[in-house]
Amino acid sequence: MFGYRVPAPDEAMLISGGRRGLGGAPFRVVTGHGKFVLPVFRKTRFLSLAMAEAEVVEKCVTKQGIALTVRAVIAFKVGNDHESIVNAGQRFLSDQEQMSVLTGRIFAGHLRSIIGSMTVEEIVTERQKLATEVLDTSKAEMAKIGLHVDSLQIQSIDDGDTGYIEAMSRPHKAAIQRQAKIAQAQANQASVEAEQAAARKQAEYARQTAIVQAEFSAEVDRAKAHADQAGPLALAQAQQEVLEAQTELALKQAELREKELIAEVVKPAQADAERIRVLALAEAERMKIQAEAAASYDRVALDRMLIDQLPQIVKEASAGLAGANVNVLNGADGLGEIAAGLVGQGLTILDSVRKNLSGDDVGSAVERYVAPHNGDDGPIDVR
After folding, report:
1. Minimum mean pLDDT among 267-271, 299-303, 355-359: which range?
2. Helices 82-92 & 98-115, crossing angle to 10 degrees?
3. Closest to 3 measured CA to CA, from 42, 46, 32
4. CA of 270: how far to CAs of 1, 202, 254, 283, 284, in Å?
5. Helical segments of the chain, H only
6. Among 18, 43, 96, 291, whose Cα sits 20 to 30 Å from the Cα of 58?
7. Which residues, 6 or more positions from 130, have their beta carbon under 8 angstroms from its beta carbon?
8. What is the pTM of this model?
9. Residue 306: how many CB atoms within 10 A of its CB?
10. Rounded to an integer, what distance in angstroms lies between the CA atom of residue 276 and that of residue 279?
């Protein structure tokens, strides 16, 4: 739009020609936004707020009177506040390059002043202290011109041809070299120890490897020997197993043959013997029965014979009594008793005869008795 102006992010727009700015400033300050500016009646200028740097190379004399050439770099910029922009705009708006020149001069003066109060040792060993003191002493002066210092770096300190800094550094260099040598010696010793440890480890590894290889070789030899012996041993074991199997087979065959012999010979013999024994027992039983039957028959025949002869026996006994002088006291009863006694004696005689006769005698007697009764009427001989 015609007449509308906008400053860059790192710029401050200064508008003059109208009413005054804040604090009675001869211009108004605009940052971060645009502003409508009437042409012809207003004038617009821009002040850079970007970072700038100034380099200082200054010869300074220390407290000890030793000349030093100090090189430093200052990083600065226009402050962001309204007052700093107004102060910097009034001083550097027409020639903003002068900010670096003026800053360098300001710092050079403060650098000479501060180095003059310090020794070379302090300057060399305490550079940060030197930079801090220079910043502190120049801060107020820089603020008056609207500038803000961000940092100060001491780049180098040179004593020229005096050799003071070199001489000052020699003890430190010697100590450093000594420490370096000690460190190198320690490193060498550590290296040697490491090498020795590595050698010991290698030797131990070689020894362990040799032991393992020896054990492995011994194991291989044992395995080979076992394998060499395994054939004959296995053959012997196999032969022993064959013999055991043959022995067991022979025993089983013997047992089988024994069973066959028992089945073929013993059992039939036992059966035949049992048959013969049974037949013999049966024959003996038959003969016994026949003998008992024959004896029974003979006994019946004998009893019959004796019974048949009993009257004759009684008759002979009574005939013997015929000439005897016998008194009968009780009459008929006494006579009956005598007869009964005679009969009893006959029976006793018969029983005695029966007991004293053997089988053959009984048979003979029976034959003698039966023969007459089988058609012969002659008397029976009972003697």
Report:
1. 355-359
2. 100
3. 42
4. 152, 93, 21, 19, 20
5. 82-92, 98-115, 120-125, 127-144, 164-261, 267-320, 332-356, 359-373
6. 96
7. 114, 115, 118, 122, 123, 154
8. 0.43
9. 21
10. 5
